[in-house]
Amino acid sequence: MRLKNMLSAAAVALALLSAPAALALEPAEQVKLLATIDDRQRNGGDYKAMVYLEQKEKGKADLVYELVVYRRDADDKLMMLFTKPKTEAGKGYLRLDKNLWNYDPNVGRWERRTERERIAGTDSRRADFDESRLAEEYDPSYEGEAKLGKYTAHVLSLKVKPGVDVAYPVVKLWVDKASGNILKQEEYALSGRKMRTALYPRWKKTYSESKKDDVWIPEEIRLYDEVEKGNSTTILVKTVDLRPLEANLFTKAWLESKSR
Amino acid sequence: MLQLFLIAFRNLGTHRKRTLLLGGAIAGVTALLVILMGLSTGMKESMLRSATTLSTGHVNVAGFYKLTAGQAAPIVTGYPAILEQIRKDVPELDFAVQRGRGWLKLVSESASIQVGAGGIDVKSEPGLQKVLQIRAGSLDGLAEPNTVLLFEKQAKKLNVQVGESVTLAAQTMRGTSNTLDARVVAIAADMGMLSDFGIFVPSDTLRSLYQLKGDTAGALLLYLKDIRQVPVVQARLRQTLADAGHVVMDHDPRAFFMKFETVNREAWTGQRLDITNWEDEISFITWTLTALNSLTGVLIFVLMVIIGVGIMNTLWIAIRERTREIGTLRAIGMQRTRVLLMFVFEALMLGLLGTLAGATLGLVVCLSINALAVHVPEVVGVFIMSDTLNLAVHPASVVGAMAFITACTTAISLIPSFLAARLKPVTAMHHIG
Fold first, then answer.
1. Is A225 part of the contact surface with chain B (CB cutoff 8 Å)?
2. Residue A111 is nearest to which of B177, B181, B183, comparing CB atoms?
3. Which of A241, B60, B97, B292 has the most crowded Cβ, counting Cβ within 10 A?
4. From the CB of residue B157, how many other CB atoms can be counted at a distance below 10 Å?
């Protein structure tokens, strides 16, 4: 009788221990999940979008910027050209060979910036506008499933790969189990301090000729500054155009010409 | 002679109140002098330790490189060859390190500050390991590229901890604004004014920020086995480096960053070497030491005048009280010189006992303050180059202070003692006091 009880207890314990393991994603599946997230957003060809940046800062008036984002994902090129307000018109960012350059037409100078650069002083970073490269930049580890409102999400913890330059070395990701879209992203410093939270409330599907498949684009990203609490930025992506762009677009000269 | 000492000693004992009052005053001044000297020496030692760790060697071979006449950068090009020559020319050398020098903006998520950056190869910096007190993280972290060491006050201002990133922004020699992200790997205890404006990053990180080649350095910091050899080594290097074909700048005893205005005004371009010593590099803060020493001097002078008047007055009273005694002693054959010595010995003994008590008191105060590691207010810490009060007491300076005050009190007693010795025995014996 006693032995029987012990065996029953062992069986229950084994079942309990094996339950999370059954739910957890294998490392290969985690990497695959990241690759899928990247691939769903990858266009393969060129990309142009009208973007609005709304910056809310504690004790200051809200600011809204209008900019055009150009991307050539095949060459890892990105350009952001500010068009509004008037004071910002002509300013821009250009990413060439892993170098992010900032141009200010008021002084006519190019300045080299880093991944931590606050785009136009907002809470947004270069990576928020660029092609998703999660699988290339981070190593994932599975944290389990979690409910986020009405959605059930895979929770992944990502750590930057050695030698890769990113704005945040540790990221916690909530991926919708049903759609595979990112719902929420928390970004941390290596010290463990939470730096920023990003919410992805709206995704849009567009057919890409170059990819010959659908491309998922986050239409809205809400960014919350976790260091300076109360500051936030909303990125609204409008009128996405996936047709090929001019060949010589991603040059300093082109961006400079737009401010003349 | 021994009898005279005995008389003087007994006389001090007879007038106990007066002796205690005057001796107490002498002891107080001695204690004050010992403490102030301890503070001054402590400041000097802290300054030397901080400066020769954070920003300068005992002797520095630095310089400026000018692409155009008006644009100087604190750079020494081709430093390995210069260092090799220095090793040959300076047998007094203990060790030498190369440091990068830069002035940049440090940006965190919530704040930014302007700081001077020292580019270091942490493995070849034994001095830093000994002097920096790491509060968080590890100094060895600086062996990795794109890392930074901050001091506590800076970390607080920037609101960053170990493991978080900051952006370094600076202008390259060609005028391009460049930035670089660096991870905070260590936070060190503040070290006064020098640590307020200084951070450390790996040399290659600083070169990368300024887009410089691997054989460039900001300065070669030379640490000698004996710091007293500084002037000799400095003079010799000026000669040998000039003989080797380098253009050596005229000696300007100022910190390198104070020379930009002068150097930028000059018409030359290319590389020039500047040979300085540690005192030159911290000349902008040594005024605090001069000010303290001057204040000590004035204070001690005033107190000595007060004590001098007190001693003179006391001896006047003693002579007046003992006029008949002096007359009797003279009448039974005591020489004038012995009368003089009797009173001088009284002052001498008072001085010796007073200074001994004062020096002991001063010493106890200094040692207690050191043992308690008393924290000073931030403003004071900036000037004394340490966040704790450090009083350095050396036996020679204590003995010196005692000898000085005793000599002063003895010298002051000479006037009334002379007058006592000059008294005629008959007049003295008839004195009704």
1. yes
2. B177
3. B60
4. 17
pLDDT tens sequence across B20-72: 888 888 898 889 888 888 888 887 787 777 777 788 899 999 999 998 888 89
CB A178 within 8 A of CB A185: no
Indicate the domain borders of chain A.
36-257
What are all long-range contacts of A111-116, with beta carbons under 8 Å and residues at least 24 apart? A111/B176, A111/B177, A111/B178, A111/B179, A112/B176, A112/B177, A112/B178, A112/B179, A113/B179, A114/A165, A114/B167, A114/B179, A114/B180, A114/B181, A115/A165, A115/A166, A115/A167, A115/B181, A116/A167, A116/B165, A116/B167, A116/B181
Tens-place pLDDT, residues A72-113 = 988 889 999 999 999 999 999 999 888 999 999 998 889 999
Which residues touch B176 (CB under 8 Å, ≥6 apart)?
A109, A110, A111, A112, B211
- Name the minimum distance, in Å, from the CA of A45 to any CA of chain B: 30
Q: Tens digits of per-residue pLDDT, B125-144?
A: 888 887 888 999 999 999 99
Residue from B366, B355, B344, B347 nearest B401 by CA: B355
Alpha helices (H) along B98-229: 126-131, 152-158, 193-196, 203-210
Residue B209: burial class (beta carbons within 10 Å; 0-12, 13-18, 19+): buried
CATH code linked to domain A36-257: 2.50.20.10
Phi and psi for A20 in degrees, rounded to 5? -65, -35
Contact A190 B159 (CB under 8 A): no
Strand partners, A238: A50
Which residues are registered as beta bridge partners of A94?
A79, A101
Annotate B66-89 with b (16+ C-beta within 10 A) or e (fewer). Answer: beeeebbbbbbbebeebbebbeeb
CB spacing of A190 vs B163 below 8 angstroms: yes
On the question of pLDDT at B369 being above 70, the answer is: yes
* pLDDT tens sequence across A158-201: 999 998 889 999 999 999 998 889 999 999 998 899 999 999 99
- Is the predicted pLDDT of residue B279 greater than 90, yes or no? no
d(CA A215, CA A132): 12
Average pLDDT, chain A: 88
